[in-house]
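### Sample
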Amino acid sequence: MRQTLRFVHRGEIVEMEDVDPTKTVLNFLRYEQALTGTKEGCAEGDCGACSVVVGEIVEGDLRYQAVNACIQFLPTLDGKELITVEDLKSEDGGLHPVQEAMVARHGTQCGFCTPGFVMSMFAEMHSSDNPDRGHIDNVLAGNLCRCTGYGPIIQAAQDIAADKPRDKFHEQSTATLELLARLENDPGLHLSFDGRQYFAPKTSADLAEILGKNPEATILAGATDVGLWVTKLHRELATVVYVGQIAELKTMSVDEGELSIGAGVTYSEAWATIASHYPDFGELIRRIASTQIRNTGTIGGNIANGSPIGDTPPALIVLNARLRLRSAEGFRDIPLEDFFIEYGKQDLRTGEFVERLFLPLPEKDTRFSTYKISKRFDQDISAVCAAFHLSLNDNKVDGIRICYGGMAGTPLRAKKTEAALLGQDWSLDAVERAMRTMTEDYQPMSDMRASKDYRMMSAQNLLKKFFIETTAPDVNTRIVGEGSLAYA
């Protein structure tokens, strides 16, 4: 494997050796390059002050996406382009159109958060020209400001969408694509630094071989959780294996009645496809995190992490999704709900990794809904996440699957509640009886996000909410977001 990190910055290929595997892009920029426009606010991918833009080739075109530099490890830039706020100025030192719009709308006060907003708006300018207020709010949800009240910043973003300006990055796109194309066929990356190692294989077979030889390695996808191990817990990771360069893990397809999703597919990449089949799931993805986190976090990583408050597993479990696990020994398919054994323990054997998820497509005359309860509406960790899948026959419950996150040590189905409903009329009386049965399925805990009583009451009421939405669709029960089509 190759020992030199290679990425594009300012129109040139940068080559680096002796790279710390877990050095963040933020620290590289600020402490090694003196590019201090990128700020550290939270160091956990929450505030957006550190936002930079990463460019890469996707299906032959150049794609720009905003990411959080504070939790992005420097070696993950391999084969990509890095753009910071300092890079936006014109050759004569003039402001970028996004910066001009911010000035015109008085969109900055103390200025600390401003570079992050500018980079998010820059990425949006190169991917969309949608001036809709809801869309703009969603794009900027990962950038926090304590001064302006957001109004002027939103107006600046809408101005950019309406004006559709072109910049030097448009003009240089052919040259940038040529540079990135030169990096595409590089072999996988293997860095050694101070007794620690970083691997970035290019195939699933190579990944299986590396994990077979390094079974204690930390598997890295979007770094949305692993990044915090370094920035918050100050952990030193001896061996990191990055899966983001494996093309096989970044594919999606529909075949034989199911959606196949590679473990390396990000939320942003999966969002539209999943929402086209399950609109409510699309709204859940919108609320999982900010644009920056959706651009790097993966559905496979959310599953493999095994968190009891991961948002996608409840929805995937009620839809009867299955996992494909792989190792040097071969493949193994299991139902997703069997993957979660107990808190902190998953059915993942030594040297094994999550390779692919299979999600059945919607069945006729079934109803699926999912709900997220959190302190903040946008980009917050769930206190409770619920999912329901229902089929009726002459208004009797022919089949029902109910799963919650945040109610136990793993994402867990409410099997006694399901049994209480099965074969019953789909009625308020039956639902209220089942709500009482739910106390036999769960004994939730109290923590900083919610008390055990709040969790139980919320879980019970979400079942009632699902009943109302399936029987009285004209009742407004939702704050409808961009991702939701079911209740618009």
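The longest helix spans residues 452-471. This sample (Xanthine dehydrogenase small subunit) is used throughout the tutorial notebook.
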